[in-house]
Every structure is written in C-alpha cells, then in structure tokens.
Amino acid sequence: MTIHRRIAIGLILLPWLRADQPPKELLGRWVSLARTFDRMGEIMTFHQDGTVDSSIAFVEEAAYRVDGAELVEFSPSNAGPEQRTRIEFTGLDQLRIGENVMKRQGAPGDAKRPIVGEWGGMREVAGKRHQAHFVFYPDGRRLFVLPILERTGKYTIQGLTMRVEMMDFVREGEFRIEGDLLTVPGLRAGQGLRGTPDKFRRHGDVPPPNDRRRL
Known about the structure:
mainly beta; two-stranded antiparallel sheet; single chain; 17 strands; elongated; 1 helix
C-alpha cells in the first residue's frame, strides 16, 4: 500500500476516530414534524453503536383508549369524531385490530394493560406488502407508521456537530436537543450546499426498550 493511499484512508477514517460518544438524550426514535399533504414523514432512530435507521413512512398520530372490546381513537385535541374498531387479544403477543392481525414486537407486555407496546403486521400498498407498526404508549398516545423506504447508515457526533451518512444522502452540521425536540442539519445538496435544518419530536421507546427495532 502506497503512502498516498494510506493518507487517503486515514483522512476518510479521521471523523469516525475523533467522534464523541452520542449523548443519551439523542438515542431512540424521532418523528419529523414536517409532513407532506398525504402524511408522509421521516422516522430517525439513533442507536448507541453509531448506526441510525431512517424510514420514509406514512405517519399518523392519534389519542386512544380501550373501551371493552373496542379500540377508540380520536384526535389529541378532541376535535372530530371518534373512530371505534373491534379488537381481540390472543394471549399477550397477538392482537387483531379489525381485520388486521398484529404481533407484539419485543418483550412481553403487561397483563393489566396488554395493548401498550409496539405491534407489527403486514399491509398491502399498491400491490406491495409492507411491515406496518402500531405503537400504543402508556399515556394514551398512538403512533401508526407504515414505512415505504427503509435505510440504515452511520452517524457521528463531534461537539455540537452531527454527521449522518446514508447511501444516498449526507446530513452534516449543528444539531440541538431541546426537551422532546431535535433539530438536525438539513440534507446536503449540490456542491456542499445544505438544506434547511429539520425538526423531529421524540417518540421514546415503550418499556422495556428493544434497541434494534427499525421503525
């Protein structure tokens, strides 16, 4: 290996070798505040090992409660009508919501509140089958995500700078965490130009956590 090649490899690896440990506040699942008119958004999940999952997905948030054998969903602002769907549990790890059969993702649930947790099942969209996810939080929030495009990349933190590398894009610049809000650098475009920063809201893990979920 020539000296020039060694130097080139060293320059490539230098950002990773100098990287700081990711702050604990960053780890977990974040949902983009910006959505398209058809409710498409981005889900980013940061892991301790320096990997990050990014999903372009249909995202729908609602409030919920369980009323006997029915799941009642409604707007968090209480605006609009309630939607009622029949549900049926088969043990703690399988749930039928209407005609859709969902299986629990991760550790077993709580017998007192069996719906709390993350559930996955297949949905067909435009002739293709995709893994859909329901996440029911203990505080009455419900998140529905139908990923259309899933990618895994790497990220590094150096001080207040974040660098995210995916196969088809790079984010690099200042990041901020303010409570449940995360601001990440915009997508890099053209000759080093950067898009506007993107904001995400935390959707933390449902206890017990399962760090390697992709959602």
